[in-house]
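Figure S4 source data
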Amino acid sequence: MAERIKVKKQKTTVQKYRVWRNWNIGLTAAKFAAPAVPFGIVLGLNWNDWVGNSPSEGWSIGIGFGMLIIATLSAVIGIWKKDELVKSKVSGLLYVTIIFLVIGFGFKLLASIMNEMGNMFLYVACGLAGSFGIDQVDKTFIVPEAARFKALIEKNGLSKSSAKRMDDEEQAAKEGEKAKQERIDSL
């Protein structure tokens, strides 16, 4: 009896592009979620101190919790509105992380309440460092591969839009040749 050889089915160019595009989308979402990880950890550790639930007082929220919310929201807005300082090789999140580290250490040196705020900024800076790593991987590896496969799809007419564009170009070329021939014949 003849041996059967298993042949691995190779992915199409469109499937490869979708994989890279999905990685890009996932890493973009993770970039925004990374500052929330330290937020969740610190909130869990300080829940009893920050969120009081006594029957006589009702709900109360500590100043540390408020500062943590402000620091985390500042980080997410910083990611969202980041400037492209070094567009080609380095993620702009590196600069946002450095700013948070400087502010965090500065607050730690000022006073007791600023020490608490400094802790919050340092926690968020750790999350931003994670965002920086995620964004750098996305920018360095994922986006160029997705762009390469998208260019292949466009060049070879593998999507509906690129196939229609190629058909339109072919039709225009035929019409141009026909018009050229009619001009030559009319002379």
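Figure S5 source data
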Amino acid sequence: MKKLLFLLAVVLLAAPGCKEKKQAVFTRTGDFSPYGQFEERLNGKVESIIEKAFWAVPQGETFAKGAKVTKHDFDSLGWTYDFIATYDINGDPVSCNVIDENGKTIYRWDGTKADNVLTRADYRTDDTLRIYVKIRCNDKGIPVFYESYDPVTDTLISKVEFENRNYNDTTIVKYFNAKGELSRKQIQVFINNHQTDYSSFGPDGTYRGGGFAKYNEKGFMSEMTFIDKDKKITDRNIFNYKYDDKGNWVWVLCKDPDKGTTIISERVYTYFK
């Protein structure tokens, strides 16, 4: 429902793979969802999310839901796709199916558990395994290292390493190619479990751009601003929500005031009892 960010990579899954966690009282949407690094922290034990977007039609002083936003529209705008995500009772992601306006799968992530923890993520398009990811995490169950492989040749494609990832402090993310050479770096700042900004750099330390976010009283993003390598604003999104009885958003009006784009996204949740 928001502009696509300079994401971690298509080869990531937000899932710990080294220790069993206690049952969660919240659920993170996850790195492998369309929300990427600006993942949301949802209230309660979410079992599934269905999110779909529609063009917003002016209706007096407000907006009504209009035609479905298509994949072509999303690609042109650079906005996140519709998706269906499922989670287990521990708050770990099980799958994420990214879909077009007709419900057809664009791509899909699936997690595999061993001894009740996720240890691998599989990425598929057209029902064909394209990439698999090995996951390593720290002693708190937070993923801190990903290795992506070609499933045909079992050869390494890339690596991603997190330093100080705890969702409450500054995290450094380093991206490496198959040779172990640094390809880029990102610095992410978190306050109270929410990422407030990020800065991206090339392997030589050259600034490549970034962004910063504001959050409302319920902990959801109220504004997102993107800047280029010269630190000039390139895009700005503003969000207004409606919520369910658990305090999770079920309707959001997404505005790009500079480009005049307005979209309504809706969600349907199921919760573990």
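Residues 5-22 have pLDDT under 50 and may be disordered. DSSP finds one helix and 19 strands in the chain.
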